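Comment thread on ticket #2218

A.B. wrote:
> Attaching the input chain for the structure job we discussed in standup.
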Amino acid sequence: LKGLEIPLEARILVVADSFDAMTNERTYRKGMSNEEAIIELKRCSGTHFDPDIVDVFVNQVLLDNENLEV
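C.D. wrote:
> Ran it. Output below, let me know if you need it in another format.
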C-alpha cells in the first residue's frame, strides 16, 4: 500500500507514534525535544509521513505548546 491506499487511521497513528518515539527517553538514547521531533516530522513529510497529517499534528502540538518555535 502507498499514499491514500493506506487507511487514514494508520497514517494518523504512524505520525503520533513516531513523535512519541522521538520525544521519549529510551534505554539506548535520549529523547528529542518537541522542536527537534517536529523538524524531523516535517523533513520526512511526503516520503515517510502523509504531509496533511503532519501539518494537522504539528499545528495541534504548536497550539498545545504555544512557546514552541519551529
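A.B. wrote:
> Thanks. Noting for the ticket: Residues 8 and 53 are 9 Å apart (CA to CA).
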